[in-house]
Amino acid sequence: MKIAVIGGGPAGLFFAYLMKRGEAAHDIVVVERDPEGATYGWGVVFSDVALAFVREIAPDLYASMTRNQEVFGAMAIVHRGRQVPLANNTFHRMARIDLLHALHRHCRAVGVAIEFGRRCDDVSEFSDRDLVVAADGANSVIRTRHRDAFVPTLDVRPNYLAWYGTTRLFDPLSLIFRTNQDGLVIAHAYRYSRTHSTFLVECDPRTFERAGLAAMSEADSIAYCERAFADDLQGQRLLSNRSSWFRYTIVSNRNWHHGNLVLLGDALRTGHPSVGSGTRLAMQDSIALFEAYRECGADVPTMLERFVAIRRSGSDALQQAAIRSTEWYENLGPKLALDPVSFAYDYLTRSGRVSHADVRQRDPKLAAAFEALHPERFA
To answer: Where residue 37 falls among pLDDT bands split at 50, 70, 90?
Structure first.
């Protein structure tokens, strides 16, 4: 097959690698608008479950991804100045650029052509290709151009976020809730290398307005966040990488393919940073599209229908969990009066997928502390 992949993120690169590794005769090109080495995130984290699917289908890539990454086995909620640990939440962490470099190396090793600095706004330039994969991100130009075919829904969430880094090393993965004169500010912080952590700041619209963040320069926004989280940053600075404030858009599409064009990764559907599922969803999409090819061969219409059949239910379930998590962060007002243990317990059960029995199994100390505070619920 002759295949074009638009977008050089994890979804497009992983699919290209799987296809070319499986059959060297495929002619595959990946086009990426940014130069090689550019990335506008910081770190990524994977759960054990999320990495297992990579290990099963691509053990060589898994080995490259995990060679220099570290594992941490706990989370912590910081509420009302107290840290509450959440046990047995194992995550693998790595720099996003390291993940991309590993994918670049493996793609090139099997003969995938990668063209950097090439912007593609129209699939007509790939009219000679059997399959065109649009993996060009949540703000997909290709999806927008063909919106009548894909029928996307773009759900812009109300909270504001800014994606920073810091040299303050956060072990364990920490969710920090601080109040100041303007309202509530939240940090999602985790170490992803020996020297740096991701530090994602979130606030609700009222806090954003009262703080005047919309009118602030990037430097002033950083200074505001450093003051808000002074106790947590312990004198370390926040670092910017095009770290402007944004509102997260949850993307879904009624139709996943049109002719020989198919959406993949964030162009198809987004999760939410609060559940860290974006890269996992993207790479699982790649596996599903590859599996559809292995079942159906070069019959592209049948292959794309099979992709939807394989992937939609799992994709929808994870996205719904992400939406419930998002809504928890957006409606924290009544929960802020909770004691730290009850607040942490509420967080852990926020998606509706974790029962009290699950908490007892995963984190017996937290379950026991919660039961002691609320004996009437367990009489």
So the answer is: confident
Measure the CA angle with vertex 132, ends 121 and 10; round to 5°.
Answer: 85
Question: Which residues have a Cβ under 8 Å from the Cβ of 269 and sit 6 or more positions away?
Answer: 251, 252, 253, 281, 315, 319
Q: Name the CA dihedral angle for 202, 353, 279, 285, rounded to a multiple of 10 degrees.
A: -140
Burial code (b: 16+ CB inside 10 Å, e: under 16) for 18-40 equals: bbbbeeeebebbbbbbeeeeeee
Please calculate the CA angle 134-254-286 and round it to the nearest 5 degrees: 40
Torsion of CA 304, 309, 311, 314, to 10 degrees: 160
Strands 131-134 and 152-166: unpaired
CB burial readout 133-160, b (16+ within 10 A) else e:
bbbbbbebbbbeebeeebebeeeebebb
Q: Would you say 150 and 143 are in contact if contact means Cβ atoms under 8 Å apart?
A: yes
Amino acid at 31: V
Distance CA 284, CA 315 (A): 9
368 — pLDDT class (breaks 50, 70, 90): very high
Whether the full predicted model's pTM is greater than 0.90, yes or no, is yes
Task: Name the pLDDT band for 184 (thresholds 50, 70, 90).
Answer: very high
- Cα maximum dimension of the chain: 69
